[in-house]
């Protein structure tokens, strides 16, 4: 790192000696070096030292602030706003909200309203303090002075968190958020932070607007691009949010590993720990339920299976159903006859023996047993709050999509099959097809630091 200010010059400041080097240039280098230290920490430290990162960044911040304070007595003609901006930015390097940073950055934008970087830093201050509206005002204001990736991607985040009066406004915000994030990426395709926020924007779009598999693929592609950048790839938020997407895809093994990566990068952050443990417990519960027929006693199970009646197939009883304007033929088959992946022109039928609690309430999961006492897990997405099936219900599922989950994690061996149901309206429960009122979009919870 280049010398910041000549020691003799600093020592002679009270004597009004003239600084040989422009303090603003030197201080800018110092603040940039602080952020480089934070963002490239794992280039010079092992992952095992992650626990020390926040403390080490705090030390560098204090050192940087001391250099800024050494210049406090100088009259920096025409650069007062930039001085306030640099000090505010230095204070803003940590994850926590620091009121002094907000005060300094507010002064900076008042003195120099065209200072886009100060507007962005001030917006981040408000963001950390959960003042969404003020954060939005800052990023919108910054964009009036020029399109830049930081304002665009931050505005994308803010719009997804902004309180809105209705679903229509939320959808509009999500759509705008995708466009802002795409523009941010287009301004610098090598910036992994922008790619990560684009991934979050696509994920929000998938949950809120339309659950199109192509949108989820765009999301995962953006996360993959983000990981190529050393700065974004060192960010635990990326791996937490990627794990959320992977869990929804039912890529459970990869989701657990992604949560694990977030834990390694920030050992004191509790959220990925909790989410990893919750997913692990959920998977254990599913496997135990499948292996033990929902823990239903043999006599009760026998009675439930005897009660299966083909009349409860409802609209699927006739061997066909209408999908749009197309008539699809259906053959009733046993669970053992299903193949992995989609089973076109097939319908399965069984009794609900249990449901499995998931802390996120997405998906709604239950176990189904057919007439041969074979048990399989069923995961239903887009189910409205308070809706579902109960133990003893007869359920028919047309053209089931079967997934085989077989992997090991932390001395746990998983090996079970499940049927994924994207929308509840295709289910027939006790002879009746579920209505549209049973369907609702899932609610997405990504971590708020980057989304």
From TrEMBL:
Key words, A-Z: TPR repeat
Superkingdom of the organism of origin: Eukaryota
Cleavable signal peptide: none
Any one GO biological process: cell division
Listed PROSITE patterns: TPR
Tetratricopeptide repeat protein 5 OB fold domain boundaries: 330-442
Pfam families: TPR_8 (PF13181), TTC5_OB (PF16669)
TPR repeat ranges per the UniProt record: 236-269
Homology family: Belongs to the APC3/CDC27 family.
Name this polypeptide is given: Cell division cycle protein 27 homolog
Gene label: LOC100747411
């Amino acid at each position: 790192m280049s010398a910041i200010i000549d020691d003799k010059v600093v020592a002679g400041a009270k004597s009004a000696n003239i600084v040989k080097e422009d303090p603003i240039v030197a201080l800018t280098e110092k603040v940039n070096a602080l952020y480089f230290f934070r963002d490239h920490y794992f280039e010079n430290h092992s992952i095992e030292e992650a626990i020390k990162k926040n403390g080490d960044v705090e030390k560098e911040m204090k050192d940087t602030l001391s250099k800024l304070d050494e210049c406090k007595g100088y009259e920096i003609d025409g650069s007062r706003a930039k001085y306030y901006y640099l000090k505010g930015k230095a204070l803003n390097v940590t994850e926590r909200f620091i009121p002094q940073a907000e005060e300094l950055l507010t002064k900076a934008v008042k003195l120099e309203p065209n200072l886009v970087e100060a507007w962005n830093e001030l917006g981040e201050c408000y963001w950390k303090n959960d003042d969404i509206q003020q954060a939005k005002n800052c990023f919108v204001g910054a964009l009036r002075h020029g399109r830049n990736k930081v304002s665009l991607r931050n505005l994308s985040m803010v719009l997804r968190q902004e309180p809105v009066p209705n679903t229509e406004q939320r959808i509009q915000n999500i759509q705008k958020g995708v466009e802002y994030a795409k523009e941010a990426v287009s301004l610098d395709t090598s910036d992994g932070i922008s790619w990560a926020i684009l991934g979050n924007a696509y994920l929000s779009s998938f949950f809120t607007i339309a659950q199109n598999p192509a949108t989820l693929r765009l999301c995962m592609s953006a996360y993959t691009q983000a990981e190529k950048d050393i700065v974004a790839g060192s960010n635990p938020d990326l791996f937490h949010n990627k794990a959320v997407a992977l869990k929804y895809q039912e890529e459970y093994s990869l989701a657990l590993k992604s949560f694990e990566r977030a834990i390694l990068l920030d050992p004191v952050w509790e959220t990925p720990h909790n989410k990893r443990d919750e997913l692990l417990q959920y998977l254990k519960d599913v496997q135990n339920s499948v292996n033990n027929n929902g823990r239903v006693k043999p006599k009760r199970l026998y009675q439930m299976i005897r009660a299966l009646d083909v009349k409860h197939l409802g609209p699927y009883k006739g061997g066909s159903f209408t999908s749009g304007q197309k008539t699809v033929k259906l053959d009733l088959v046993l669970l053992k006859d299903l193949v992995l992946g989609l089973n076109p022109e097939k319908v399965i039928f069984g009794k609900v023996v249990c449901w499995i609690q998931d802390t996120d309430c997405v998906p709604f999961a239950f176990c189904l047993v057919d007439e041969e006492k074979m048990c399989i897990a069923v995961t239903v997405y887009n189910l409205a709050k308070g809706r579902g099936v109960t133990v003893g219900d007869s359920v028919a599922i047309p053209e089931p999509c079967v997934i085989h989950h077989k992997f090991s994690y932390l001395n746990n061996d998983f090996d079970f099959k499940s049927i994924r149901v994207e929308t509840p309206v295709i289910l027939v429960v006790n002879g009746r097809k579920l209505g549209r009122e049973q369907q609702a979009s899932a609610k997405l919870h990504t971590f708020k630091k980057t989304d």
